[in-house]
Design brief:
Residues 1-94 are annotated as: Disordered. This protein is mainly alpha-helical. The chain folds into two domains: 10-83; 128-494, NCX, central ion-binding region (A middle domain of Talin 1). Helix content is 73%, strand content 1%. The chain has a two-stranded antiparallel ribbon. The longest helix has 39 residues, at 45-83. It is globular and about 70 Å long.
Length: 537
């Protein structure tokens, strides 16, 4: 007898189970074939033989059909190993291959980067958008000074005392509205993309003005301005902006609450930045005068570049934490969904044009610094710590204070503290890497006065936000601490660039060393050698 195929047989996948009648017919046909023609001697033998033959033919035909069906199953199974579940004609859905799944995942991820978080209302037309740009802030009145500063730069003698003052003031005031428009264009473009890409745009371009000014100062070998302007932005955001937010919000509300976990994490990130500044300073202080400057400089530069790479990696982890894994810690529950106020072409045009104008006007500003500081006795430390941060952050200052006034403290904290984190962990190390590529001696070795101010600012802010609440008194204290630091920076004298040997006793990387390293090293070495020779004599 032939065993009836069952569903447990792996070759019978997808085969319909034979009916009971077909099974009996197959069994009888096979039985009669084995028995033969001489198995029956009764009166009905002929009839039995005929029936047996017909049953045998039916059984053979059924067996052939079953074998053919099994071959189809085997063929379908072989094709399914290549194409997925169910081959051609099997009636089952096709399984995607690994490459197809990976391609679809990448396409979905790329689409999510460009898809807004929520459906946006139709943007206004180009004409209305341009009017919105002009009416964005009252500081736009100062845009009229852009052509004035350009004309003065080319028409006047930049070395003269009066000309340098005029160029510096007009460029200084013209950058203030440009910084606001650059931020405005960035926000409008960010609305058209996904949350992650929008966050990256804001994180990258949020401090574009500070970055542009610092890069131009770096290529002019204004190392003091480069370092102090960035530290000054951190001090301005942590003390002046945050203090004004707490003060203005506290006048309207007795007490304001914010997310304590995110605030403490932010102060931890700032502490990491301060540590990266203090380590080179402690290294330099430990060596003292026991080692030659020409030996110490390469070590400090290599240390600074390695630390900068580590800081950039830390900042990337911070962005992932903020934009992907723990977005709930930074989401403002009171903030209403924003709607576009600019046409997409106007938004991109505002962003690009503002960036170009900031770059060119900053060039005139930095180029007039030497004549301005020497002619009027203003120290570069004061200019970098106090004046330039006010220019770069004027629009953000207003935004943060208005947010605190309507009780959106988390938004105000994000503007003030978030901007400080970006400068400390992204802009400063990025500039060190850029200087490395451009062969400029910029390091993380800051002036001790500047490094101590940064440490004290982070320390007092960490105490102010430790309890997750703020009031007007805390803001009042922070603002006055900034005033004290600004007052102290006014009396910090500039280094005497006419005596390089005297400069190296105070700093390893003065501006003159950047401008002419070969001559500077020869002059310092000659002075040191003659001094030692006369001493031995």
């Amino acid at each position: 007898m032939v065993a009836t195929p069952t569903s447990e047989d792996p070759t019978n996948v997808g085969i319909t189970k034979p009916t009971k009648r077909a099974t009996i017919a197959m069994e009888e046909g096979r039985y009669d074939e084995e028995k033969g023609e001489g198995s029956s001697s009764s009166n009905g033998g002929a009839t039995d033989i005929k029936d047996s033959q017909e049953s045998g033919l039916a059984g053979a035909k059924g067996s052939d059909q079953n074998s053919q069906h099994r071959s189809i199953v085997r063929q379908g199974t072989a094709e399914s190993n290549v194409e997925g579940l169910g081959g051609p004609g099997m009636g089952l859905p096709r399984r995607m291959t690994a490459s197809e799944i990976e391609g679809r995942t990448l396409k979905k991820s790329f689409t999510s980067l460009l898809t807004p978080q929520h459906r946006l209302k139709p943007a206004p037309g180009i004409g209305e958008s341009m009017m919105n740009v002009l009416k964005y802030t009252w500081l736009n009145v100062l845009l009229l000074l852009i052509p004035v500063s350009w004309a003065l730069y080319f028409a006047l003698d930049r070395e003269s005392k009066g000309a340098s003052l005029a160029i510096f003031l007009t460029s200084f005031l013209a950058i203030m509205p440009l910084a606001g428009l650059l931020s405005y264009g960035t926000e409008e473009v960010s609305l058209r993309v996904g949350q992650t890409l929008g966050g990256l745009l804001n994180a990258t371009l949020g401090n574009a003005v500070e970055l542009i000014v610092a890069i131009i100062a770096l290529f002019h070998c204004e190392l003091v301005i480069t370092q102090t302007s960035l530290v000054g932005s951190v001090l301005s955001n942590l003390l002046l902006v945050l203090g004004m937010c707490f003060f203005v919000g506290g006048l309207r509300y007795k007490e304001q609450e914010f997310k304590q976990t995110a605030a403490q994490l932010n102060t931890g990130m700032l502490t990491m930045a301060v540590i990266s500044v203090l380590i080179p300073a402690s290294f330099h202080a430990t060596l003292g005068e026991d080692i030659q400057d020409n030996v110490e400089r390469p070590d400090l530069l290599q240390m600074s570049r390695g630390a900068s790479i580590i800081l950039l990696i830390i900042y990337l982890g911070y962005l992932w934490f903020q934009l992907k894994s723990h977005t709930f810690l930074y989401a403002d529950e009171n903030e209403a969904e924003e709607e576009p106020t600019l046409h997409i072409y106007v938004a991109w045009g505002t962003l690009v044009l503002s960036t170009v104008l900031v770059g060119v006007t900053s060039e005139w500003l930095v180029d007039s610094l030497d004549g301005f500081t020497r002619g009027y006795g203003v120290g570069k430390t004061f200019v970098g710590l106090v004046l330039l941060p006010i220019v770069s952050n004027a629009a953000e200052h207003v935004t943060a204070v208005l947010a605190a006034r309507r009780n959106a403290v988390d938004l105000a904290m994000g503007v003030a503290v978030g901007s400080s984190i970006q400068i400390a962990l992204f802009v400063i190390p990025l500039l060190v890497i850029i200087a490395w590529i451009a062969d400029k001696p910029l390091s993380l070795l800051f002036d001790p006065f500047v490094a101590i101010l940064m440490f004290l600012a982070v320390l007092i802010v960490s105490y102010a936000i430790a309890d997750g609440r703020s009031n007007w008194m805390e803001g009042y204290i922070l603002m006055n601490v900034f005033v004290l630091m600004a007052l102290a920076s006014w009396y910090v004298p500039d280094l005497n660039s006419n005596n390089p040997a005297q400069i190296t006793k105070s700093t390893l990387f003065p501006d003159e060393y950047c401008r002419n390293r070969d001559f500077f090293a020869m002059l310092v070495g000659g002075g040191a050698g003659s001094g030692s020779g006369s001493g031995s004599a």
